[in-house]
Amino acid sequence: MQRWYTPVMAKDRKLRNPITPDRMEKAAFDYLGRYMATSQMLRQVLERRVRRAAMSGPVDEVLAETTISELVAKCAEMGLVDDRKFAEAKAASLARRGDGSRSIMAKLIQKGVDRDTARAALIRIADETSGNLELASAVRLAERRRLGPYRHRDRGPTRDRDLAAMARAGHSLTTARMVIDAASPADLEALVDAHKREV
Q1: What is the DSSP string of the chain?
Q2: I want to staple 81 with a disulfide (CB 3.0 to 4.6 A). Which of 58, 75, 112, 162 is the partner?
Q3: Torsion from C-alpha of 11, 17, 19, 20, nearest 10 degrees
């Protein structure tokens, strides 16, 4: 079994566990057994493992990079890594939480999803919800954070703060104003329903 470095003798004279292609494959499968990931996320996990190993001794960087690339490709072929499925699942989860399209797009790109795949995921989710994804997610954010019409006290003094919360979640000023300035939760629900009927 080929090692990527010569293990360093620890103080108790026992060899530290060497990092090997077999151990890297086990680490990849263990990680993907617990988490849904993009190709880039898996690559970063494996690269971190190599960096930790390098703290104990020299690492064959060429072999490490080759092994990581082969493992990422193998996991993609097996369907364990699928950037499109990850993008759709993550985008749907973020939209349910109340994130706006801009925020969702940024978070997907941060996870290693390319722009076209991220954009396609947003379009697919909007189609599946048969409505205005931006408006629906903004309403969910307002309800979850008790903003705008979901407040149980005078809303005037908190309007700017509520609009700022919407902006931080990636919603446009137009959508934020529509939600925050709504007269009541019932009006917002009727607005979302009206958008669904228009589709």
Answers
A1: ---SSPPPBPTTSPBPPPP-HHHHHHHHHHHHHH----HHHHHHHHHHHHHHHHTTS---HHHHHHHHHHHHHHHHHTTS--HHHHHHHHHHHHHHHT--HHHHHHHHHHTT--HHHHHHHHHHHHHHHTS-HHHHHHHHHHHHHT-GGG-SS--GGGHHHHHHHHHHTT--HHHHHHHHT-S-HHHHHHHHHHHHHH-
A2: 75
A3: 140
Can you read off the two tokens belonging to residue 89? Answer: 């699942």
Q: What is the dihedral of CA 8, 9, 10, 15, to 10 degrees?
A: 90
| Burial bucket for residue 184 (CB in 10 Å: 0-12, 13-18, 19+) | exposed
Q: Over the stretch 33-69, which tens digit does the pLDDT of each residue have?
A: 999 999 999 999 999 988 888 877 777 788 889 999 9
Residue with tokens 């360093």: 8
What pTM, to 2 d.p., does this model score?
0.74
Q: Rounded to 5 degrees, what angle do the CA atoms 74, 78, 83 make? A: 85
